[in-house]
Amino acid sequence: MSELNEKGNQLIALLADGEFHSGEKIGELLGVSRTSVNNYIKALQEIGLDIYKVTGKGYCSAVPLTLLNQQIIQQVSGVDNVHVEQILESTNQYLLDKLPNISNGQTCIAEYQAAGRGRRGREWVSPFASHLYFSMYWRLEAGIEKASGLSLLVGIATVNALEKLGLHGVGLKWPNDLYYQGKKLAGILIELNAQASDVCHSVIGIGINVRMPEQQGKLIDQPWIDLNNISTQPVDRNQLSGLLIKELRMLLSDYEEKGLVPFLDRWFELDYFLNKQVNLIVADNVQTGICRGINEQGALLLEIDNEIKPYIGGEISLRLANN
């Protein structure tokens, strides 16, 4: 399914209230048979919507849905180059396909990604209207060398936005994950398009677990958590999107001018693995040591036998030593 047709949109709007609606009522609204209603329901379930069917009552969404609203996001962020889609292959790819003819800070947010991806080619589970699938384009005038600490800066901006929503206790795992109480909350995927000695076009992808449907959660092969398990009230994705855009634009401008140095203290405050024994997996080799944070270039500092060594770039994974 590359897009929802008009009837699919009508059905989502009807079910968004979280109340039961009879198959007969849905059929009348859509102008289709009961068999077609059932097919539409199955199609929505296939993109990750939790929909209950109860004999004699009809269908309902497991939870009320608040859909993305481009106008609200623009109002909160204070900028108008925000694009909201229902279904895309990938928000990152949407922006990459438009390079270089897009404005700095152009943002794309989707309700669903048919082919969302994470670091090292992993699939990012993307159920409809459940999480935040967010990408922003940023032009680095200083070139590709400036990209070395970009994911760390983006992590800080994301935590800042969450804290502005009253969500505290989120930490950062080098180089591109957000953790809460030892479980993954969000991931960052930055994709670059650059030539040597030229500007660097970066697409910053951020995926945040907001409300994980039960069946979709079973597809994830690592401990995870979502914002609705952290917050005492439902998280508004429109508010979160707008705050994230504001925070990113502000911090990215400072980063281009000053680098990571002004943000080092904040990273050390948020570093989930700081001063813990870790395994650093580099290709097929495992280095065990103590995480000592990062340096000014964004390299991980690992203490081994009382000597601190920096590690950056390539296929590197970080794990707690006892995991």
Automatic annotation (TrEMBL):
UniProt DNA-binding residue ranges: 23-42
Supply the EC number(s): 6.3.4.15
* Record's protein name: Bifunctional ligase/repressor BirA
Instruction: Kindly list the positions annotated as binding biotin.
Output: 90-92, 113, 117-119, 184
- What residues does the BPL/LPL catalytic domain cover? 67-256
State its role: Acts both as a biotin--[acetyl-CoA-carboxylase] ligase and a biotin-operon repressor. In the presence of ATP, BirA activates biotin to form the BirA-biotinyl-5'-adenylate (BirA-bio-5'-AMP or holoBirA) complex. HoloBirA can either transfer the biotinyl moiety to the biotin carboxyl carrier protein (BCCP) subunit of acetyl-CoA carboxylase, or bind to the biotin operator site and inhibit transcription of the operon.
Q: Which GO terms describe its molecular function?
A: biotin--[biotin carboxyl-carrier protein] ligase activity
Family annotation (Pfam families): BPL_C (PF02237), BPL_LplA_LipB (PF03099), HTH_11 (PF08279)
The similarity annotation says: Belongs to the biotin--protein ligase family.
**What does it catalyze?**
biotin + L-lysyl-[protein] + ATP = N(6)-biotinyl-L-lysyl-[protein] + AMP + diphosphate + H(+)
Signal peptide start-end:
none
Query: Keywords for this entry?
Result: ATP-binding, Biotin, DNA-binding, Ligase, Nucleotide-binding, Repressor, Transcription, Transcription regulation
